[in-house]
């Protein structure tokens, strides 16, 4: 992979991580969308607790944050609820898991230029940044299930099986 392509991929991953951080801030604090976005745009994506940060694509980050925040009807949470098993629903999930899933579902719905497999892999990577147990697997399962429904054409004959 070329250096510029790797740089774009890292920036895209950092942008999604920053979007999740802003959405988490919105979920647990009384921040406005603009305050949360200003915070992540100023510092970039916080990669670890030591203060390591990465450059983000502010447009991608803002698109995700504003899109998820605009879901006042709860359509994203309804999709999470329909994809969880064992009597689980979005209200039982930790806030961070909920915002990771919301962001991934938003991209599956509203960003058709990004392949579904890329969306899934990116949000599994974001989950790995915060969790080290089964949570990344749950992110993978929920987003994969929804991707096969929302973007069936990208999965060809596997979608009809």
Structure description:
With 161 residues, the protein is mainly alpha-helical. It has a single domain, classed as NusB-like (N-utilizing Substance Protein B Homolog, Chain A, Orthogonal Bundle), CATH 1.10.940. The chain is 65% helix and 2% strand. The chain has seven helices and two strands; from the N terminus they run ααββααααα. Strands 1-2 form a two-stranded antiparallel sheet. Strand 1 (45-46) and strand 2 form a beta hairpin. The longest helix has 26 residues, at 3-28. It is globular and about 40 Å long. The termini are far apart.
User: What do we call the CATH topology?
Assistant: N-utilizing Substance Protein B Homolog, Chain A
The CATH class is identified as Mainly Alpha
User: Sheet with the most strands?
Assistant: 2 strands, antiparallel
Q: Give the low-confidence spans.
A: 1-6
Count up the domains: 1
Which whole number gives the mean pLDDT?
86
By secondary-structure content and strand pairing, the structural class works out as: mainly alpha
Task: Name the CATH homologous superfamily.
Answer: NusB-like
CATH architecture: Orthogonal Bundle
Principal-axis shape equals globular
Cα(first) to Cα(last) distance is 34 Å
Computed over alpha carbons, the radius of gyration is 15 Å
Task: Give a brief outline of the structure.
Helices cover 65% and strands 2% of the residues.
How are the secondary structure elements laid out?
Elements: H1 3-28, H2 33-43, E1 45-46, E2 53-54, H3 58-69, H4 75-83, H5 95-110, H6 116-130, H7 135-150
